[in-house]
């Protein structure tokens, strides 16, 4: 059994990883200030420390108080649009919290660090599918903040020997197939939950941004990776770090789906129409973003189990239908 510190473990991706760690028998401590996360997303037996990562003394105390085998760092500001209104806040907060946490981990003798990075590092990609060798060129302050965080971790390795994995997620989607966890953001900005909410009458009609892209149906194509597959990637990557080297992986399904395909699938799965209107393109939205997951597959044996859009939407819908108002009025998820 190993022990891990998970920042942002009450949030969407982090909570699914916490559940996966608990299920394989690891001990987990979560730091989350609950600005977006939910207490009810933390399984029984997991200690929750409610604290802002900016509270360096508290973070150092937590790291010094337990002996951790690794840190998984999910807590961040992560809204692309907001980052273009408040670029300095995004860059300052995401970078300083990541490096402050890495520094505390090094001082506490913890040598494994996993960073939630993003496909936004690649901006308008130079080729498709996007492999790890593609040019890095974020077009948002959010993407820039994660690129800077990755670079800081490279220095932490060179000088202090901290082994890290930077996982560039594409679009995390879906929910725990057993229905214990789901996606509950406020505000919600992700396409699949927005489309489901619109279909169920739980949210406003959907806006489809741009119908004149150079794609088969004119709408943007994105790579949706199931959150349970994403969690599995984290577990495998912890094993790679144990072997003593730092890694960077693109974590995506490897196939893309258009916005219209998402709407069609949500309509089929829910059996209800998705009310939507069309709007102009959004600035900074490339036509197609699809990951090459070859490196991750070859080096870790990872294979997505829920790659079909139907499975992704079905699990997301099942959770939302059972929890129309999210975690706040739902029962605590069953213990792992
Ligand atoms: N969801 C995606 O599709 C996606 C894609 C690419 C990258 N990412 C990255 O993955 C990570 C997790 O994303 P998510 O969708 O689960 O986000 P989320 O907002 O659901 O979870 C983040 C959690 O961190 C907590 N948090 C934020 N700032 C904090 C701070 N300063 N101190 C303590 N806790 C804090 C929030 O309360 C929340 O529980 C983020 O770093 C994000 O940038 C997500």
SSE topology sketch:
Blueprint: E1 3-7, H1 12-23, E2 27-31, E3 47-49, H2 56-65, E4 70-73, H3 80-85, H4 87-107, E5 112-118, H5 141-160, E6 163-169, E7 171-173, H6 191-200, E8 206-209, E9 221-222, E10 224-226, H7 227-242, E11 247-251, E12 257-258, H8 259-270, E13 276-279, E14 288-289, H9 294-300, H10 309-322
Parallel strand pairs: 1-2, 1-4, 2-3, 4-5, 5-6, 6-11, 7-10, 8-13, 9-14
Antiparallel strand pairs: 9-12
Bound molecules: nicotinamide-adenine-dinucleotide.
Can you walk through the features of this model?
Helix 5 links the parallel strand 5 and strand 6. This protein has two domains: 198 residues, NAD(P)-binding Rossmann-like Domain (Rossmann fold, 3-Layer(aba) Sandwich), CATH 3.40.50.720; 136 residues, UDP-galactose 4-epimerase, domain 1, CATH 3.90.25. It has 336 residues and is an alpha/beta fold. 38% of the residues lie in helices and 17% in strands. Nicotinamide-adenine-dinucleotide binds next to helix 1, strand 5 and strand 7. It catalyses: UDP-alpha-D-glucose = UDP-alpha-D-galactose.
């Amino acid at each position: 059994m190993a022990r891990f510190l998970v920042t942002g473990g009450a949030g969407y991706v982090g909570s699914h990883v916490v559940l996966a760690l608990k299920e394989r028998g690891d001990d987990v401590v979560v730091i989350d200030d609950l600005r977006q996360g939910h207490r009810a997303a933390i399984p029984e037996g997991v200690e929750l420390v409610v604290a802002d990562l900016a509270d360096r003394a508290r973070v150092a105390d937590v790291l010094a108080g337990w002996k951790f085998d690794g840190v998984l760092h999910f807590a961040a500001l992560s809204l692309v649009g907001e980052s273009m209104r408040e670029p300095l806040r995004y860059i300052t907060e995401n970078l300083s919290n990541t490096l402050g946490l890495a520094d505390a981990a090094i001082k506490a003798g913890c040598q494994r660090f996993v960073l939630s990075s993003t496909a936004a590092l690649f901006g308008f990609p130079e080729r498709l599918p996007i492999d790890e060798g593609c040019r890095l060129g974020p077009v948002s302050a959010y993407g820039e903040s994660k690129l800077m965080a990755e670079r800081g971790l490279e220095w932490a390795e060179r000088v202090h020997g901290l082994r890290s994995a930077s996982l560039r997620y594409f679009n995390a989607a879906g929910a725990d197939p057993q229905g214990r966890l789901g996606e509950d953001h406020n505000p919600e900005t992700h396409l699949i939950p927005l489309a489901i909410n619109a279909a169920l009458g739980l949210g406003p009609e959907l806006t489809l941004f741009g119908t004149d892209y150079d794609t088969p149906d004119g709408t943007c194509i994105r790579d949706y990776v199931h959150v349970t597959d994403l969690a599995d990637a984290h577990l495998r990557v912890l094993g790679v770090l144990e072997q003593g080297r730092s890694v960077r992986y693109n974590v995506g399904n490897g196939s893309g789906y258009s916005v219209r395909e998402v709407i069609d699938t949500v309509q089929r799965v829910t059996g209800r129409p998705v009310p939507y209107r069309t709007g102009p393109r959004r600035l900074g939205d490339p036509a197609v973003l699809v990951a090459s997951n070859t490196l991750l597959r070859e080096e870790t044996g990872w294979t997505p189990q829920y790659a079909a859009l139907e499975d992704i939407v079905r699990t997301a819908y099942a959770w939302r239908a059972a929890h129309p108002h999210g975690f706040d009025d739902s029962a605590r998820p069953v213990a792992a």
